[in-house]
Design brief:
The chain is mainly α. It has 2 helices and no strands. It has one domain.
Length: 44
């Protein structure tokens, strides 16, 4: 489970301009939430 979560953090951190190696789990959760809500706000 740890590696799956880290993979999600890497995918979310890169476009947001964060270094995933320097992110804590809490920071990662915030970035993932931000990315998901930003993508949901875009209408197709």
């Amino acid at each position: 489970a740890h590696y799956a979560i880290r993979a999600l953090l890497v995918d979310a951190a890169d476009p947001a301009g964060y270094d995933p190696d320097r992110m804590s789990f809490t920071q990662g959760v915030r970035v993932v939430r931000r990315q998901v809500t930003d993508q949901a706000a875009i209408t197709p």
